[in-house]
Amino acid sequence: MQPTDDSVLLQRYVEDNSDEAFAALVTRHINLVYSVALRQIGDPGHAEEITQAVFIILARKAGQLRHSKAVSSWLFQTTRLTANNFARSEMRRQFREQEAHMRATLNESDNDLWPQIAPFLDDAIAGLHGKDRQVVLLRFYEDKNLREIGSALGASEDAAEKRIKRALEKLRRAFSKRGVNSTGSAIGESIATHVLQMAPATLAKSVTAVAIAKGSTALASTLTLVKGTMKTMTWLKIKSAVSAGVSVLLAASVATVALSQTGNNNKSAAQQTSINGENTNNMLSSYSQPVTNISNVTSGSPTIVRTQSNLFGLQTPTSARDKQLQNSFSQFPLFALATNTEGQPAFQTLTLTNPVSISNSTYYGFRFQVPSRMNEEDFVWAFVQPESFSGWYIMPQTGIMGGFINYFYTPKNIYPAADGLFPLNGRRMILQSLSGENLEDGHTYLIWFNFTQNHPRRISVAFTFTNLQSNSPDAIESGLHLDCQNYLVHPLSPPVVNPSNHHVYILLRPATWEESEAQAVALGGHLATVRNQAEEDWIFKTFGHYKWMQRLLWIGLSDREKKFHFSWSSGESASYTTWAPGEPNNAGRGEDYVSIFYPNHSQANHWNDWGDRTVDPIGLPMDGVVEIIPEQTNNPVNITPTAVTPAANAVAVLINPNVTITSNGGGIKLQWPVSASDYMLVATTNLSQPFTMFGYSEVTNEEIGTLYVTITNPVPQMFFRLQKP
């Protein structure tokens, strides 16, 4: 008897609310999901939680998937997304941990192939194109035979076998870049033997029960994981739709070129082609223009955002400008392929001198020569985008370029190696690839740049030739050995000591508040607590315009635990505040985290509450400021001497319920009845001014029924009171 198709089971679950059908799906695929999760995370307990989350997502999205013939492929991708979200939230960066785990659990010799490929297997499979990935999953993860695979693909058994061999060859190439040398058949045998890890016997039952209930009985951490993964899936779906729209636009544009060429032989296609009513001149034939608006990088997007550009065809004849540039080839410097001491591609500095001038425009650039290649390796390169950038083009010394070019842009600061690259104030890195079949061995090519205004003196560029597994920024980064997976581990600044309080401060790379606080804890501190104007000014002056860029600075203040009850992540209570007018306002809801405005802002050096995001609405980075208090510092705050004791300076405005204030060493202690626990403590230095929220952590004294807050460094002449949120 043939097993029931996944699509039939999904349809029964959606239309008939059949728990048995969903349980059958879980039983069929749970080993696949659990195995992928275990390899990604390396911890069986975490892998079980990820498995639970994946099947909750399946239950919620079953209506969209009930006609799908590739449920296993969907589960594989969703498991990887969920595992990546889990790893990001836990700051678990996995490659070395995965390898150590696999070697420990498999208990096999170091000479065995499986421990060498296991840490990279899921990433390599994810890099395959759709049908190649599907046949690998069907053959090795679901143990399907050639007839069943051919049926799923709508092809013959021979075609299925060829597809498997081709996919294994692509995996062999991917592993060879990781230093694992083997054959496709050996890799296939190793995967078939080891790829599936048996899930715990009780997991399928518990997963089914929780997933059928759509997660209503799941742990809070599991629901958080589900929410984050579904948000990422929505983002990827929107991004895919945008890319598809661009492809349609490209096809329409190429068709317009063809019609123009046949309809009027006296004019070039480029002269007649327009997009959205604007004449493109030669844009379709040879020009790439970077997208300058990055306001779409907002809260809710993935932390590391890599955006794909429009695609421009390179099929039409070269223009008069291009011919003049080809005639001036020798004026551009020739760059050889540069590598570092480890043999990896290295950045070179292009000094922008001796431009070629054509029609009131100036062109700078460099030449490179294609080496003798074994398998028509693809050309990949990267450069830092200058602020005054207009565009660039890759062109041969003679003739025209075939194929299409596309590019991706990504924040420069996510790459630890990019800190010293030129121009230093460049915010983004451009990543680009060109299919190797469009290049000829031994031929020389030119990359030129054009600028809208004053150009920078130098640009850092890197390029190499490699077999791309997929047309993606991840693949280009891999080819160029650009590491962005662990970028938070490398702070943006070295440790800096504040001479006033002798605390150590570190500026992190752009990240969300939650990620920044997690990294601060990993470094031995917390996001900074600001206790007085002197500390505020020092932090702002030291980091607000760090490395030639305006920055918003995350500090440790938030009301994520209780709305409008702000507390410092360090657990301290500090009465100092410097809110911008009208803040905090929780505009649009979800604004739970506080940062300092950048120097050029109208409210520079004042505070604002934000959602958990990595950049502000105009694309400026949001960096966390870590504060580490040395162990030998007995008092963690810098107390300014005053002639009057803090208790005499602090005044409680008598309302119901009352706040009492007493001296407490060098600070003050505020106390009020526990019956007023739903009130919040506010303060002001002038009774003619509004009371504002500040950061404090309250403690309950159950014996006498009171709440109290200890402030070790109160602002002089401070008035306190309780009020309803």
Task: Based on the model shown, name its key terms.
725 residues, 20 helices, 7-stranded antiparallel sheet, 35% helix, alpha+beta
What is the rounded Rg?
A: 30 Å
Helix/strand/pairing category: alpha+beta
Q: Quick one: how many beta strands?
A: 30
Let me know the largest β-sheet.
Answer: 8 strands, mixed
Describe the structure.
With 725 residues, the protein is α+β, with helices and mostly antiparallel strands. Helices cover 35% and strands 20% of the residues. It has 20 helices and 30 strands. Strands 15, 16, 17, 18, 19, 20, 21 and 22 form an 8-stranded mixed β-sheet that branches. A hairpin with a 2-residue loop joins strand 1 and strand 2 (278-279). Helix 1 crosses helix 2 and helix 2 (19-41) packs across helix 12 (203-212). The radius of gyration is 30 Å and the shape is flat. Residues 91-111, 238-304, 309-317 and 633-648 have low confidence and may be disordered.
